[in-house]
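Hi everyone, sorry if this is the wrong subforum. Our group has a chain we'd like a structural model of before ordering constructs, and none of us has done structure prediction before. Sequence below.
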Amino acid sequence: GAVDTIGVGDLGYELALDASGGIQAVSLGVAHHFGQRFYAGVRVDWVAMGTFNEKWSKTFFGQNVFFSNDEITRTHRGWVPAVGFVYTPTQKWSLGGNVQVGQNIRQRTTLTTRFVSVNADTEIETLRDVKLPTLVGGGLSYLAGYRWLAALDVERGLWRKTEAGRFNTWDISVGGMVR
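Answer:
Right subforum, don't worry. Here is the predicted structure as tokens:
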């Protein structure tokens, strides 16, 4: 978790955060072989198990200000489609690409505030759509005989188109395998 001190005097407080969770998906896909060298496929991810849990606590410096614990739970549901291909011009080289279509998924947020010193709770629930970005990726692999393989993958996340203040991302992965 993280802890920070905010403000001074009676209304100043120590703010602590503890967070956990993630978004998981069940993926269903199908692909087809076109000739000897080209494969194409489609995939749909069902975001069915996406939960983030946050616990915030405020401890005020003043004796007469209520201490509170806030719990925020965000759950996610929705569908995210993707298409991809693999082209193998030789037995050693493969080239692939994919596009995951930017999509809205439903986010349910539950905010529970517990005023510990007076034993009172409030709960607010909201629903909103969260825009996931379009992802465009490509990869290249080289198979050197039976013993080893080298690969390079690049993915561009177009986050800027989802909401003001977000930035596009690059993911670059390099890997190898030895048998």
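For your construct planning: DSSP finds no helices and eleven strands in the chain. The CA atoms of residues 23 and 75 lie 9 Å apart.
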